[in-house]
Amino acid sequence: MKSVTPSAAPAPSVEELKAHHVFVPGETGEWQQRARLMQARWRERRTLPIGPWPARDGDGRVLGSRLPLPDARGHQWNFLTTTIAAQVDRALVERQRGALIQEDRLYGDLLSSQPLAFNAFGELAADHALATAVWRRLVHPGVTVVDVRFEFSPGRGDPRYTGTRSAFDVFVDYRLPDGTRGFTGIEVKYHEDLKQPPKRGSRPDARCVELTGEVLAGADVDALWRAPVWQLWLDDLLARSMVTSRQYRHGDFVVLAPGGNTPCASAVAAYNALIAPARVRLVALEEYLAVVAAVTDADWVGALGERYLGVHPG
After folding, report:
1. Scanning 4, 53, 110, 162, which has the fewest C-beta atoms within 10 Å of its C-beta?
2. What's the CA angle centered on 133, arms 141 and 291, to 5 degrees?
3. Which of the four pLDDT bands, split at 50, 70 and 90, describes residue 126?
4. Which sequence spans correspond to the domains of the chain?
């Protein structure tokens, strides 16, 4: 497979972005521009209709990285296979109370990390043997995957954990050979740069502060409650609390993002520098794709690389 990844490509010009209807005033991040352009081209190759500008004051403009609703929902254009689309349906039926699955983003936003989570892990959710084969390469050779869920929390607002509404985009539940329970909680990012700060004037939940003192002794809460690390902190605390509560014997929090998303990589590095010892693992989408490709030659694997990384067969 020959690949041309966005990280190796030149930055798109304003003229190129405008030609594909993806010029967004104020969006200056090089990876963000490349990713938006990549999604527009993917839509164009499939001759899918273009969607409207999401803002209410869009004035009839269109955006190349969007699909029109309700057609996108009815045809499930945003998903790579019918199996993945079925997992989306399942997740919506089984979603936990308070789960933030935004259907506008899910069905209509090609750039959103929410459909990426389903496209990257939906086939694994439907086939636990495949998930096990992948996780034995990524995590431990003796694991057996028993469940893959989306937008999962062990208990939103539950003080046994963080007391917040934080959840993992993808949650992989597994067993080790000795029968102990383990999990991988995954935050999926695509174009996001994690620069959005906490709500102005807000403070971290008291339970988060308490838990930080227990599991991240010496960490500076004020430094953690800032962009670009605060979201990572809450998710990492959630993972740690699931182990300290003895619900699981083993657990890890992982961030999955394309290698070209350097702001996301910098955020993970910044977070790990604030805690001791470093814990959060950044897995490049390219690395994950290579692991999956080593255990299956299913068409969806190539389709995932083509859409999100610009990897083309040939």
Report:
1. 4
2. 95
3. very high
4. 6-309
